[in-house]
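Human: You know discrete backbone vocabularies at least as well as I do. Show me how you would write down a chain together with its backbone fold. No explanation is needed for now; the record alone will do.

Assistant:
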Amino acid sequence: MKSILIIEDNENMLQMMCDLLGRSGYSVITATDGVQGLKAFHTHSPALVITDIIMPDKEGLEVIMELTKQEPRPKIIAVSGGGILEPQTYLSLARKLGADHALAKPFRPAELLALIEHLLA
């Protein structure tokens, strides 16, 4: 069973993704900010990380920069609903920093599952 780390500060979004991935047979680890997320990554070494961009303590862009230096490097999906800027601005930057894919919130659960299956194939 492949493990996935979800780093998301929005409780409802975190729960939705956790339930979806758990029902789909993945082992799910969760964190609510970038600091917790990086600790969880080093403890569990998941195959894939889904990270929000705008979060307290350590933003998703910082998390992505640190994850791309790891060996083995996990697959990374960045998600964002935007902030001061439009979501696509943050997501474009996430891709430039090394995210394998980026999704704007809200997204369809089937879209996330298809993307995960593709990245972990």
Remarks:
- The first helix runs from residue 11 to 23.
